[in-house]
Amino acid sequence: MGVTIRQKEKGKGNPWWIFIHHNGQRKSVKVGDKRTAEREVKKIQRMLLSGQFELEQKEEHGKKFKDYAKDWLETRIKALRRASTHERYESVLRKHINPVIGNKPIDLLKRKDIRDMILKFHGQGYSDSMIRLIRDVTSGVMFQAVEDEIIQANPVTGILKNLKLEKKKSKEIESMTAEEVALFLETCEKLYPEHYTFFLCAFRTGARLGELIGMNFSDIDWNKKNIKIQRSFRRGVLSGTKTDKSRVVVMSDQLVASLKRLEIIRKKEALKAGQGEPLEIIFHRNNDYMDQKYIRRIFKRILKKSGMRDQKPHIMRHTFASLLLSNKESMVYVKEQLGHSSIETTVDIYGHLIPNSNRDAVNRLDNLHLNRTQTHADKEKAVPG
User: Fold this and answer.
1) Over the stretch 256-289, which tens digit does the pLDDT of each residue have?
2) Are the C-beta atoms of 186 and 179 separated by less than 8 Å?
3) What residues make up the domain containing 278?
4) Which of 101, 161, 174, 353 has a CA between 20 and 30 Å from the CA of residue 194?
5) Please, what's the b/e burial string for 139-166 (b: 16 or more CB within 10 A of its CB; e: otherwise)?
6) The pTM of the whole model exceeds 0.70
7) 381 in any annotated domain
8) Do 199 and 316 contact (CB within 8 A), yes or no?
9) Number of compact structural domains in the chain
């Protein structure tokens, strides 16, 4: 039970509000200036002590968390975020969050409820990334409730830090060796030649799977030998890149030759089908964008036929970056080729590769020291005894 006053938005001229919490119910009332708010608080406190105060039931009170979350998904996430984000959030609500707190009124949810839910999932061995996702989705719903003035504060804020469940240092990412890349491509060319250029492009550009599928022939600059990556195809939807920014990646001579051969094949296919001009889509399947599940299956089959360990296709992107760094390319260049939003992201993921790739640089410091020592010794010998 309590009565407090504050401005929802601090600043001169902004109204003051009274917040009342009584018998499990909450209510906020706009009253004007601070002096008026303080005067009204005293009246309410006297009524509370005398038992004469009755708080009207709020319209939002009793609305279950799961129902409010459903509205949040439709109005905030589906309308403003990517389809894949909406799908992921809907899934985590349905499978994890709603079974625990979904039936509780959103305005009666306490920090203890959120804490107990997170500790439950942590105790069941949920991964750090899943714990953070559960935290983020729950926090998003509760923050919207703050914005709608249903609750005063977000009970999720800072909860992982207080529980000491903050993000742990990520594990070092594995990648293929140059020999494994060669073996993979040789196996692909032998068993699935129609997909050879696709996988060569993946290993030579570091593009994400959806970006590879979304490439058009018009994105290629044959004179400058580069490709402009500006779209991605995922779950039947063509959209911008993950960072919503286009980038230009350099093509190797081998990739240029392979793409030119593929363009000739596409033109012949179009003429044979009576289409005149070939499709703009470079790596199409049945005259349409490929489904990611299809190319993932092909990737797994090639790995198996090559006798290599099972991996996800994203390893091709990691391999591209790792091989560049092992060849002493700069972290800035790798960042630009991968299309990371910041250099910090690149360093976080691939920073562990820098010491090995720069070993020659520190060895040169040894050489400087040895040269200086040798010069000093030579001078001493030159001095008459």
Assistant:
1) 999 999 999 988 888 887 777 788 899 988 888 9
2) no
3) 178-356
4) 174
5) bbbbbbbeeeebbbebbbeebbeeeebe
6) no
7) no
8) yes
9) 3
